[in-house]
Structures are given as C-alpha cells and as structure tokens.
Amino acid sequence: MKFGIIGAGMIGRFHAKAIQEMTGGELHSVFDLRAEGAEKLASEFGAKAYSDIDAFLADPELEIVTIGTPSGAHLDPALASLKAGKHVICEKPLEITPERIDQMMDLAKEKGVTLAAVLNRRFHPAMEHFKAAAENGRFGKITSASCYVKWWRTQEYYDSAGWRGTWALDGGGALMNQSIHTIDALIYIAGPIKAVTARAELLAHERIEVEDSAVALVEFESGALGVIEGSTACWSSTGHPAEVQVCGTKGSVFLADEAFKIWDFAETGAGDDFVRENLMTTSAAGLGANDPNAINVTGHIRNFEETVNAIQEGRVPTVNAGEARKAVAVICAIYQSAREGGKRITL
C-alpha cells in the first residue's frame, strides 16, 4: 500500500524509516505546512513533497496516511484524511480526549475506512508471551496490576517546542505523553479499569502547564488493585525501564521495557524455558527513558504491517482506535481525579 506521512518532524522520520523497512508498504508522499520540512524528508526517502493538505489528500495513488503531528493536533488531519477516503494510522495518543477519538471513529465508520493507532510497544516477543499467559489463565485470579514510568526530561526538552507541556497540544504531561504506551500495556494484560483516585503535580520543571509527576490508585473491573505512576522528574544516568507488574494467585510477572525481571508461575508452561533463556533482563537501562530518540523502529514496522494486513484481509486491526481509546480514557479520568482533589472517578 502507498503511504503518506503528515508531519515531517522527529516522529515523521520514524514513520518514514518504518515504511521503508516494512513488508507491504512504500512511502509515496510527505505533507508538512513547512515546505522545506516536507521537501527534506521526502527527498531523503524518494517521495513526493506537499505543503498543501488538500493537494496531498487529493492524490489518487495515496492509500494510507500516518499522522505524526503534536498530540492535540491529530483530530483535524485525521478527519481530513478520513473524509478523503484514506485509511489512517495515527500516533499516540490517538487524540487527547475520548470525545475527540469518538469523532474520528464515527467518521471512519461512515466512510468505510480503517482508523488505527500506533501501539508499537505491543509488538515484541516478551509482550506476546505476557499476553498469552494472561489469556491462558496462568495468573489464576489477578490481584495486583501496576505500571511505573520513572523517566527524566530536561527543562530544555520542554523549552524546545512551544507545544510541549501544554494542555491544548500535549494533552497532558508524564502520563499522556510519556506513559501512555505502558498504561496501554497494563490494560492490554490486566483488563479494563473501573475507577481511579489520583494526585498529579509539577515538581521539577518550569514554564509548563502539565504534570511531571502523577500517581493513581487503580481499581480493575476484575477486582484487582494497582498503581499507575508516571514521571519525567526521575533523573538517572541511563534512564529507568518502564515496568508493568502483574501478580495473581498462581503467578507473577514483571516486564521491564521488552524483557522480564520476573517470570514466575506455580504451574510450568510450555514456553517458560524459552522465556527464561531468551527474554530475561537484569539491565537498569531504560528504552527511550532519557532520550525520546533512543527507541527502535521495529515496533512501528510491525504496527504498520498489522494494519496493512488487516485492511487487505477485510478485518479490524488489533491496533484499532477502540483499543487506543482505552488508555486515553483512563488518563483523562486520572487528570479529573487530580483536579478534583483526589476524588474517586469511575470510567
């Protein structure tokens, strides 16, 4: 399928690399309001450049659009692309409120095109084993499920672009921007969240509107309890791994980025030896924890391939908009609880 990228910044470059390396897709065009940005990225990858969104979307060869604009600026390009009959894969968060996501989903349904999200941290072997363990009931009754993102961002990071750290365009801070993939993983493994009680603060940075530290008590529909913690105020020379910890009456697993710190079950499973030989870690370094550029492109490749395969097979992709909406709804509920002095908010 022929891809077009909206947004020629850092994330747009990741998208271009992923499209270049994927099976089943090629980069056809790049749009950015900054003509020089579009030209630079397009020329590097042998694509067409556009600085006019209408001309970009009118191209009949363009089939699928990826969106890499700031978080709170996903809605308009997504709606324009869907209205033009293009399939869409949008970066995280899909949008910064469930209501905006609903607008996107409604239009995609009306136009009969696919709206997918970038949930790239679902696509690695450790996550596949983690999900299989949950689906096969290996935890017994899940009693505790938590996630922790204790990262560091410099003041210069927030000062580097006017949209960073704003409610309107970032949609939030350490939770909405940095922690959303880990919160998605928590829900993906442990199931729906019923209620949250939270606090959020700005503790280590200046000149931003949003939180750099947040903690929420989480109640799952299953009855399990847990914690969501997100921060960009935790300095480390290497960055701490993002962790998802799930415990039950028959097993405990702690995932640190893309490998396990703990893989421990009361009953032996068929894949346990493979996990212990290939997917365990003792590393204290975090993937992209201190530097957002320091992530690999493999997850994006698999994310894009899954979406293309789903479109061609006439099915809903596993990274569909409804899946992406779940973490956004939880984060918005956490923000509401924090604004209302720690009030318990039900979803």
From TrEMBL:
Domain of life, source organism: Bacteria
One of the record's GO molecular function terms: nucleotide binding
The GFO/IDH/MocA-like oxidoreductase domain, residue ranges: 129-253
Matches recorded under InterPro entries: Gfo/Idh/MocA-like_OxRdtase_N (IPR000683), Gfo/Idh/MocA_Oxidoreductase (IPR052515), GFO_IDH_MocA-like_dom (IPR055170), NAD(P)-bd_dom_sf (IPR036291)
Pfam families: GFO_IDH_MocA, GFO_IDH_MocA_C3
SUPFAM superfamilies: Glyceraldehyde-3-phosphate dehydrogenase-like, C-terminal domain, NAD(P)-binding Rossmann-fold domains
Coiled-coil region list: none
Domain Gfo/Idh/MocA-like oxidoreductase N-terminal: 1-116
Database matches in PANTHER family: D-GLUCOSIDE 3-DEHYDROGENASE, UDP-N-ACETYL-2-AMINO-2-DEOXY-D-GLUCURONATE OXIDASE
Name of the protein: Gfo/Idh/MocA family oxidoreductase
Organism: Luteolibacter ambystomatis
